[in-house]
Amino acid sequence: MKYTVLQRVSQNIDEVIARKTDLGIALWELLVQEHPADIAQFIISIPQPQATAIFLPLDKDLKLEIFGYLPEFARAELITDMPVQDKQFILTHTHADDISDMFAYLSDEELKECLKLLNKQDQKRVLDLSKFPSETAGGIMTIDVLTLMKDFTVAKSIELLQRLQPNKDLHQTIYVTDFEAHLVGYIQLQDLVLKSPDTRLESILEEVPYVALSHEGRKVLAVEDTSTTGGSVLNAVEALKEAGAIVVAVAVIVERGAASKVKEANLEYRAAYQLSDLGL
Asked: 212-226, pLDDT tens digit by residue?
């Protein structure tokens, strides 16, 4: 029965895509009731323009289910044709391994776009202090923010970095996010060399001393547990400003020497404790 429905859809594909005739509408309604795995097999059996025309109008949840059954090359072809909102939904609801496997089939420009979408959701931006320079080897990639996802393996992370070919100025610290683009920690570049290929980043990451999500124009307090030189929290302040936030002050739990540097940056500085309060 399923084969008969899909066969009829294939035989009347133009009418199904247009959905302007009774037959086209009826076959479309039958098509969307099929199992997502069967629809996925059907999509890869027809020419790419028709596959896109069938896939894009589907309900987003059905699209996501179908996407999970598609091979990497088909995923790459479809995601290239999706509007930004659909791309973002698919990318943020698909397992990290599946996303990284698909990267090999994307053009450099499309890879850049997907990486950007992985790092923001609903206009929230994860403030990432690890940035690629505006030019990479070959002058192909230009990305504002790059983080790796916590479910990426070491092997996939290395593959991605090799694909992007960042130059020697890449920061040694690379930040890591969850599926919703929330900053969860960081790794050192050397960790990717020292750990086994199957190791997932979430098992080796270090928690960040501060995590900030910012809307443009929002007043923000930059907070760190303790600071000796003020360097890390001042880097965070710069990232917050780049994201459009208004930094009103810096606060630490324990003051260990950062006060002068922060005040030199014309920022109010607050500390819950001095070393002397702790008997140190």
From this structure: 454 455 677 776 666
Q: How far apart are CA 240 and CA 1, in angstroms?
A: 57
Of 10-14, 43-47, 143-147, the range with the lowest mean pLDDT is: 143-147
Task: With both helix axes pointing from N to C terminus, report the angle between 96-103 and 108-118 in degrees, rounded to the nearest 10.
Answer: 160
Q: Where are the beta strands (DSSP E) in the chain?
A: 120-121, 124-126, 148-149, 173-177, 183-188, 213-214, 219-227, 246-255, 268-274
- The two tokens of residue 132 are 């690629």
Measured in degrees and rounded to the nearest 5, phi and psi for residue 228 equal -100, -45
What is the distance between the alpha carbons of residues 204 and 150, in angstroms, rounded to a whole number? 9
pLDDT at 239: 67
Q: What does 221-241 look like in DSSP terms, one character per residue? A: EEEEEEESSSHHHHHHHHHHH
Q: pTM, whole model, 2 decimals?
A: 0.51
How far apart are alpha carbons 165 and 168 in whole angstroms? 9
d(C-alpha 61, C-alpha 152), whole Å: 24
Given the structure tokens 């109010």, which residue do they identify? Answer: 268
pLDDT in tens, 87-128: 888 988 887 667 777 877 888 778 777 777 765 433 233 223
Summary mean pLDDT of the chain:
75
Task: Supply φ then ψ for residue 38, to 5 degrees.
Answer: -70, -40
Q: How far apart are CA 233 and CA 223, in angstroms?
A: 7
Phi, psi of 176 (to 5 degrees): -125, 135
